[in-house]
Amino acid sequence: MAHIEGARELSKQLSALGKAAGGKALRAATMQAMLPALQEAKKSIPVGEPPFESGKDPYPVRTYKGRLRTPGFARRNLARKSKLSRDGRRASAMLSVKPEAFYVINFNEFGTSRRAKRPWLEPAFRRALPAINARLKERLKKQLDKAAR
Questions:
Q1: How many distinct structural domains can be found in the chain?
Q2: Domain that holds residue 89
Q3: Threshold 0.90, pTM exceeds
């Protein structure tokens, strides 16, 4: 079983796996660690009201790709993305919406000159931070144990 005390020990164990395997393990662990943040963001993302009782929107809003933007569109377009540095020593993960749902970040999270900001992503991330850290440690140990076998 892997025992990790700090970043230096982690770096040694990942290096011992080799560049490809160590980088793959690190990237997989960061991606899995962001899952609590994704779940928390899905709970707190603003969802619009459906149009009139008839269910027919007199002014349908479509994205630049032509997809109909219905209530819950931004929630369905939340995504995690991870990157690995070229040297395979650093991994980063990002939580955001896909480009078609940019409005929920630009207009709600940051606000505009006419609309007050209503942050939801940053508070959701901060609430999930302890779970992210715990999950990252757990997943790294699991990945190192799996690779050591």
A1: 1
A2: 7-44+59-148
A3: no
